[in-house]
Amino acid sequence: MAYARRHLDLLPASVRPGIWSTLWFMVQDGRLSPSTYMAIFLDMAPRGNDARQLSSFRWKLNTLLDQYLNQAVWRDAMERLHAVA
User: CA 13, 42, 45, 63 torsion: positive or negative?
Assistant: First the structure.
């Protein structure tokens, strides 16, 4: 987990979707905080992920913002998300 979080962009492209899916399921199961998932996404997004991959996260990010994050974290996440976009 720690390695994937720091080096997700260095893993083979064929492995990354599985890692992202696992992280998402961990959020749904309560084993990973939504704010941590958002932080991982925001850290990885500017590191050269392709546009198709990033756009596939749109619904997950909307779900995080709408259902999982409290208001203060939501505002911070939105500011960081707009900075990445």
Answer: positive
Question: At a CB cut-off of 8 Å and minimum separation 6, what does 8 contact?
Answer: 16, 19, 20, 40, 44
Tens digits of residue pLDDT in 18-77: 888 898 899 899 999 888 888 888 787 766 555 666 666 777 777 777 787 777 777 777
For residue 17, the number of C-alpha atoms closer than 13 Å in the C-beta half-sphere is 7
Residues 6+ apart with CB under 8 A from 5: 40
Q: Give me the DSSP letters along 1-57.
A: -HHHHHHGGGS-TTTHHHHHHHHHHHHHTTSS-HHHHHHHHHHHGGGT--HHHHHTT
Pair 42, 34: CB distance under 8 Å: no
